[in-house]
Fold each of these.
Amino acid sequence: MRQSSLVVVANRLPVNDNVALDGACEWRRSPGGLVSALHPLLRHTPATWVGWAGGTGPAPTLPDVDGVRMHTVPLTGDDLRDHYEGFANATLWPIYHDAVEQPEHHRRWWDAYQRVNQRFADATAEVAEPGAVVWVQDYHLQLVPGLLRAMRPDLRIGFFLHVPFPPPELFMQLPRRAELLRGMLGADLVGFQRAQAAHNFAQLVTKVLGLPATDRRIGVDDRMVRIGAFPVSIDTAEMSALASRPEVADRARRLRHDLGSPEQVILSVDRMDYTKGIEQRLKAYSELLTDGHVKVRDTVLVQVAVPSRERVGQYQILRERVEREVGRINGEFGRVGEPAIHYLTQPFDRAELAALYRVADVMAVTPLRDGMNLVAKEYVAARVDDAGALLLSEFAGAAAELPQAYLVNPHDLEGLKQGLLAALRAEPADVQERMRAMRAHLREHDIRAWARSYLSTLDQSGSLLSRLTGG
Ligand code: ADP
Ligand code: G6P
């Protein structure tokens, strides 16, 4: 078994198998913020990525992806149902997102969560060389730091949570809250998107485990665990370079023409998830059409909603409701060749996404709760022309870093409508000033700055950092 000095552990590998039109299996970058953040960072780094390749059955052997070794962990049908769809996405995901949908609790799901976490920990212990840095990602694997420390005390272990960490009132509902906290405390550094999340975590370890904690440090046995906020980001330069390509600019012009050359295009790009506020946004747009504030001929909405977690009941219900509402709005307000909403559920390559961003006069990113939201950052990075208005939810982690966006509360329908109108009607000079400020922020706070800040806290020798970030 080849071993690495840096091992990233995430439920998902950065590639997904998709069946192509001719029936062949092709590997494609998987949509989602975690992969979007880590994939450009690790490219050409001698690291191993431990994760699930999608599907069930024996783990496929994958070739290296951009120089990174792929170490696959198999999931059975029961694991998929009880660990991924169950405990991770029907218990933890709703609790961590303000319980905007009801979390479910089943003892069988917890058994699967423990079992799958142990399998990930075993796989990681195999591929980590002595003294390696191991970086465990996200809510699917909260027990891995503790399990790994028990097996391999020589490792330097980091944990990063990409999603929000909830206030104590919500977390306390979890029947296995103590085990989950103890699992995370197996790490040397526990990172969150926001300072508030680190604060919630510190309060909880004191309340549930009786440990002394500040918002920066927690004493566990004879160790000190550091905690802190490290807002994740994107490869800003890469997205800007892609969006500057002449063929992307041409594609954006073509898209505008194909959309019927409207005066304004509103764009949303989400995974089909109830945290993203898709239904609220459709309602706001529909009411603006009803009130006559917006006319379909002048202003179209492009909603990209790539299906996600499709076997989880709440996701199926959401998709049905969204599609019914899109159909209703198009039936009521569209004309032949002129739909009110262009609704797309396909995954796109990065160049097509960049072209969509360039065509959007208003980018509507209005989740009810989101750890960060990288789509908002990608939009800003793609606007190399300093144009385009970002309508952003106050409940996305990105809002703390991008206060120049048009900020809205997506739970307030009237506020959402007013925000959308304000963004549509904003003076070009105001739009440009805001965009410039946001672009300046993201140029500095990109994915490499994130890795620098996290890894220099985790690995104080600095050797790993210089290899990853090129100095
Ligand atoms: P989440 O992680 O909850 O899905 P983010 O906004 O942080 O939300 O990240 C979503 C990532 O998935 C972004 O990098 C975005 O570009 C990508 N993505 C979203 N929709 C698509 C799509 N239809 N095709 C390809 N990539 C997509
Ligand atoms: C969010 C989570 C990631 C997850 C992604 C896509 O970004 O934080 O851990 O990979 O959504 O979801 P999926 O269930 O398809 O992996």
Note: The chain has two domains: 4-232+448-466, 236-443.
Amino acid sequence: MTEQLNYFKWKQQAEAWMREAADYIRWQMHEQLDIKTKEHKNDLVTHVDEGVENFFINKISETYPSHRVMGEEGSFKKIDDLSGVVWILDPIDGTMNFVHQKSFFAISLGIYVDGEPAAGLVYDVMADELYSAVAGFGAFLNGKRLPKLGRVKLDESILSINPGWASKDETVRNLIETVRGARSYGVASLEIAYVASGRLDSYISLNLAPWDVAGGIILLQETGGLATNLKGETLTLLKKDSLIAANPSIHDGLVNRAFGTT
Ligand code: IPD
Ligand code: CA
Ligand code: CA
Ligand code: CA
């Protein structure tokens, strides 16, 4: 139980830092953005992404010197295992939305202890919607408990998926034809949070990094959802992988569909 008390403390602290970081983001959004590219011309990063990551690194190292940070904008390079307490951070998830749309982006954080979930937070900065959970104690949206997910039928479900995958991949086209409707938001952590809250029934990606999923999958676990890679295997959070985050009543159906076994 003392362990869980720590988890609540970390979650509360993380929430306060997220709100502070969000103020910085909302302020910088109207300044000139310093935009760079990373692996390819559409892989964007701004000084705000880096500023938010540095803000968290400073706060976490001052407050919890033994904790480590695995963040997208550089700090991940120091992490090759999940021993101890690791804060897995996406400082801005949905950078392309941030740059072009000024909305639909999130700060995502998963806190893990020896690889086991402790607390997850996903904050939609512009909608001011904070999804949070301490493992084992339910998930909340702006302080209101989210109910456990009810049953849905695969052919009446809503799937979120990047349309880019559909143009290249037959498996993805097959999945889209199976469900009632497909959507795309461009912000993985929030799409997983939407599955946790029932706004979506599933979210699929062929390639995500640990920081895209670490916060959201804790929320999802708390409302009874399932998150695996496309083969139905557990995610390691140490490498890039595919993802099916789904309502439990359709998760296996989607995995089977992806592999053409049904
Ligand atoms: C991206 C977003 C996007 C997903 C990409 C991610 P970023 O994260 O979550 O929705 O399709 O695979 O890389 O780079 O904006 O943090
Ligand atoms: Ca990125
Ligand atoms: Ca991301
Ligand atoms: Ca990011």
Note: The pocket of calcium ion (ligand 4) is lined by residues 49, 72, 90, 92-93, 95 (CB under 6 Å).
